[in-house]
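Example record used in the benchmark description.
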Amino acid sequence: MPAIRVAGLRRDYGDRPALDGVGFELPAGASLVVLGPNGAGKTTLLRILATLLRPSGGEIAVLGCSLPSEAWKLRGRIGYLGHEPLLYRDLSGRENLRFQARLYGIRRDAAEARIDGLLQAVGMERRADERVAELSAGMRQRLSICRCVLHEPELLLLDEPDSNLDAEGRERSRELIGPGAGATRRVGTHDPERHVGEADQVLRLGIGEAAVVS
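Model output (structure tokens):
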């Protein structure tokens, strides 16, 4: 069974179609990179797969669950990294991760060990107890990556994962969300030079054009 199966996917915003007739299959453990200009539907596709948007038509199955009817079964199995960091600005980075761990039902002792390891992996162990509001955009992105993988998801849905990261941040993040991280990956990006070489499949979206899989 493929990790993601999409057939005839359509999503409309009023009278404007954002996606129309998109279809692909992604095997478990593989990486899919989605390319396209602004407005082609890359983020819309990711949000549908993450169960944050309902499709207007078509068939979608993620990790064996039909969307949107079985979206509830996917909670805890997906790691989502979008344009927004999804962090509470008045909490510290460590407090944010502890809160997420409680949401996912991770035992406290296991959560503390996992959080310490992730913070060290992204180079945030010395800044983890500062309020998120006081951190740079790059540091918030590093924390968002920790949040995304905290519960060891089976599927990573990544929208511009390199956003605001410097060279060191990009290199450190590869250990957690790169192709060797062990999870199936779907990456939307404006930077094909960095990601296409790591992809098992490439999906090209165009405005008003059919999707092309290679």
